[in-house]
Known about the structure:
Structural class: mainly alpha
Distance between the termini: 69 Å
CATH architecture of the largest domain: Alpha Horseshoe
Largest sheet: none
Shape: globular
Oligomer: single chain
CATH superfamily of the largest domain: Tetratricopeptide repeat domain
Helix content: over 70%
CATH topology of the largest domain: Serine Threonine Protein Phosphatase 5, Tetratricopeptide repeat
Order of helices and strands: HHHHHHHHHHHHHHHHHHHHHH
Number of domains: 3
CATH class of the largest domain: Mainly Alpha
Amino acid sequence: xxxxxxxxxxxxxxxxxxxxxxxxxxxxxxxxxxxxxxxxxxxxxxxxxxxxxxxxxxxxxxxxxxxxxxxxxxxxxxxxxxxxxxxxxxxxxxxxxxxxxxxxxxxxxxxxxxxxxxxxxxxxxxxxxxxxxxxxxxxxxxxxxxxxxxxxxxxxxxxxxxxxxxxxxxxxxxxxxxxxxxxxxxxxxxxxxxxxxxxxxxxxxxxxxxxxxxxxxxxxxxxxxxxxxxxxxxxxxxxxxxxxxxxxxxxxxxxxxxxxxxxxxxxxxxxxxxxxxxxxxxxxxxxxxxxxxxxxxxxxxxxxxxxxxxxxxxxxxxxxxxxxxxxxxxxxxxxxxxxxxxxxxxxxxxxxxxxxxxxxxxxxxxxxxxxxxxxxxxxxxxxxxxxxxxxxxxxxxxxxxxxxxxxxxxxxxx
Length: 414
């Protein structure tokens, strides 16, 4: 009978294969099982690798994120001091899980940014890559601008290529596209999306080929090229059969929400929200915040103190920008609490002049549209007018199909 140390590395490779094949949920469950085996066997390095696999290659959501944080935190505590490369990977995984998990748990990690900044220049490309990924994950909690995410993602792509990691290179290229979308840089996003699509096809990853097709559809749709968008959409639908149902469902819901916001049909989503499985609606805090915006749209506004509670569950995460905009929508005619208003203004200001994407969808439009509405509610009319003009300008430059939204959404028309 083989000892765990002999067969666990092979089993962990199997979780990677599942992930690349689009079976993220199955890979994360299997990794959790392997972590339990490694814990019982007293194998700290293998336990650490299993904990990382449980965090998935993307950002885990909801309970998955919190479970990954707990596993990785345990792995960090038991890791031998000489395992420097593995420590950097664990810090990266913990921060990535924290982007959508419990932000308060990040304090338990301590101040790791100086260490990661130093490791980002390490001669070992694997260590440098994971340090750069950790710094990228920190940008949301630090309210750093999309330009910083773009810089880090580009460096990650180079480091991943040097390290020979096709999976990490694909993820970095995906993040480059997202950063260009955040910056409302149409040409940059289109060029990055082409690179991502070609690399994903070459690598053969079902997950990234599907994601790249969604990104290509998004960019064609934003500029009104419906025929091109439909071709990419058809490709994405074909590839979706090889992706976890839960992952695919989240992408479909993100697109539904984005289209409804753009076309001012958010109230039409109420039946779809009511039909959601309870487990899925609790999977991602953005579902609950979107639900609050839908409730307001159908004449059932939620109290501002409840919106503040929802905000506490997502601030500092990679969902915070879109969540802030949806909370502004959910407020309706209600006045936000002073703390909520201040924190939403801070979050939306960090995205000023840019876009608020959600996953591979067009998200909810220019950040300045929501900032203009919020500032108007707070009585800051001149600032509101300036951001309203900027929102329309961003839409003209980046996504002409959203111009009507900005003209209708921003005060005094809102």
